[in-house]
Amino acid sequence: MASGDSIFSGSFLGTGALVNVQTCPFKPDKVEIYNEDGLCKGVWQKSMADGDVLKTITDGTISMVNDDGITPLDGGGFSLGADTDLNVDGEKVHFTCHQ
Questions:
Q1: Model-wide pTM > 0.85
Q2: Can you tell me whether residue 48 is helix, strand or coil?
Q3: Any idea of the CA torsion for 76, 71, 35, 87, to the nearest 10 degrees?
């Protein structure tokens, strides 16, 4: 990465509904999320539409999710839609935001 790039990591519990993750102090250019309990991961980057996420599930299936994925927030952080693999009520989700 270029000098001056910012990285912020954290975790939250899924809600099964749209959740705003505002602990990141900047609007990310890339977000990686990992559902620890559901063994699923997703990646969004700024060349993708808001609400999209490239998702990989346990069996290795890769798919593009539209509308229930990740949207960066202008005030910092991101929102995660109600994707049934990535955002499950009570399941632990880890994330890394890049700027």
A1: yes
A2: coil
A3: 110
Residues facing 10 on adjacent strands: 95
- Residue 27 in 3-state DSSP? coil
The pLDDT tens digits of the residues spanning 57-87 come to 999 999 999 999 999 999 999 999 999 999 9
CA 35 to each of CA 4, 11, 15, 21, 40: distance values in angstroms, whole numbers, following the listed order: 28, 9, 12, 14, 5
Q: What is the CA radius of gyration of the chain?
A: 12
CA 56 – CA 64 distance, rounded (Å): 9
Structure tokens at 86: 């990535």
| pLDDT at residue number 1 | 45
